[in-house]
Design brief:
Layout (H helix, E strand, L loop, with lengths): L7 H11 L14 H11 L4 H14 L3 H6 L2 H8 L6 H16 L6 H5 L6 H12 L8 H10 L10 H12 L2 H5 L1 H14 L18 H5 L16 E10 L5 E5 L10 E2 L21 E9 L4 E10 L8 E3 L7 H14 L11 E4 L10
Parallel strand pairs: 1-5, 4-7
Antiparallel strand pairs: 2-3, 2-6, 4-5
Helix pairs in contact: 1-12, 2-3, 2-8, 8-12, 9-10, 9-12
Amino acid sequence: MNPALPSAAALLRWYRAHRRALPWRATDRSPNPYHVWLSEIMLQQTVVATVIPYFNRFITRFPTIEALASAPDNDILALWAGLGYYARARNLIACARAIAATGHFPDTLDSLRALPGIGPYTAAAIGAIAFNLPIVPIDGNVERVTARIFAIQTPLPATKPAIAAAAARLGNQPAARTAPGDFVQALFDLGATICTPRNPSCLLCPWQSSCAAHAQGIAPTLPRKTPKSPRPIRYGTAFLLRDPTGAIALRRRPPTGLLGSMLELPGTAWEPTKPAAPPPTEANWHDAGTIIHIFTHFELHLHIMAATTPHLPPTLQHAPPTTPLPSLMRKAVEAGMACLDGRSGGRKEQVKKTSFLKKRSKKLL
């Protein structure tokens, strides 16, 4: 027998006692749509703990959406460096300027979805949190909580429509419709702190008595997922070139595609087979190892070569090694600098692994 529909009022009481303190959340005032929008864009594919310092730096540098909209692109991209998924940064710029041009923040789902970089989930999250629209956005946390509450066992992604319909049932309760923003954030927090992917804390859950998966003893196994195919591998080489002042050579990537408009070390294209790797200038090049970096759709093996030179090529940008860079390129610079400074033990010790595949659950702190 299925337990009764869990009480939205009980979840809201739990939330008011245990809510996470997040810098974009309003506690004693109405939500700031700019803060909600900025946090939601940053939280796409990125965990809360990573986003918090970036959000704080952005709000300090650009306290209003008008300030963000009027800032030079490269200033915004530099502040974003390291946060990953750089198409978000380009859409952030376009969206800020579109909103600033109208003089007000749109407050309907249709008007939100018409903006650059705002899809169905993000529009629903902004609408619910900033404008109290009665809708439940489905992120990883809501998906997991809902699958467990209703014991939905069909694997993802096939079960997404069923989960969305079940989540809407939760949000249609009178208490939830009275405070849609708080109810949505309560679902986020329940998934992030109690109903976690592994070892959920069911004894502390305000919905334990109404959870079908808990009653059946299968909560930790849900939601089930269809196995994914292995990611293909691509290969490339990047060159760290340093002059006697400590400056390094960089270039800016094309405005579209991976890491669009971001600074990078000069290097080869990323290809399915190891490409030829002509260096940008003649020098005594040293092998600084290989970085394995996980993108959403492929795995990159980036070989790092490092050298010193009296003069950096005039066709490249000359910058200090502390220049803000994407995480991949920052690790490449670190590997190259360590090699040149004698801090690496050779190729095997320089093999590193990092990942941009950060699941969007709002999020596992």
